[in-house]
Design a protein that fits this description.
elongated; mainly beta; Porin; 1 helix
């Protein structure tokens, strides 16, 4: 009789095989952040690399591991880069993601370049988000790879971004 009571108590308290296994989930929360952006590539002679600031926004869809992201790269030329990303948990506080989207330089074709070129282009964006424990802060870092991103040469551009965001 005591063994049955102990077994029932264990089930009610979540002990045993019926308890769900703990799983890491994508770091919770949408955020807006600021940071730095550095271009790693150059186009032709008049299309150099640039560095500047970044404003980053992530809106996390709560039911599925997908986020809508936008980065505004501010430099010699400003570029807006909206992407849709697939998010995957690495730990409780760390997400990895891979996004795809389009880079829109505000003055496409201008000889001034953003960190990701001077032409509208398809982009891939791998990155990570780290939610600081017991805080609303997120540290983010990513790369943007823009294909056919320079008007003169048609070369691929790459840039890295990093910064700090505030969850909302």
């Amino acid at each position: 009789m005591g063994a049955i009571a102990l077994g029932v108590a264990g089930i009610l308290l979540g002990w045993g095989a019926l308890a769900p296994a703990a799983q890491a989930q994508a770091a919770y929360g949408s955020y807006i952040g600021i940071g730095a952006s550095v271009g790693l590539t150059e186009g032709s002679e008049n299309e150099g690399s640039s560095a500047g600031g970044v404003i980053s926004v992530r809106y996390r869809l709560l039911e599925i591991p997908v986020s809508l992201r936008t980065q505004v790269l501010i430099s010699e030329q400003t570029a807006i880069v909206p992407t849709v990303s697939y998010d995957f948990p690495i730990t409780w506080d760390l997400d990895g993601y891979l996004g795809a989207g389009v880079a829109f330089p505000l003055d496409a074709g201008d000889t001034d370049t953003s960190p990701i070129g001077n032409e509208t282009s398809f982009v891939l964006q791998p990155g990570v988000d780290y939610a600081l424990p017991d805080s609303d802060l997120v540290i983010f870092g990513n790369a943007i790879i823009a294909f056919d991103a320079y008007e003169e040469s048609g070369d691929t551009a790459a840039a890295i971004q990093a910064g700090v965001g505030l969850q909302f």
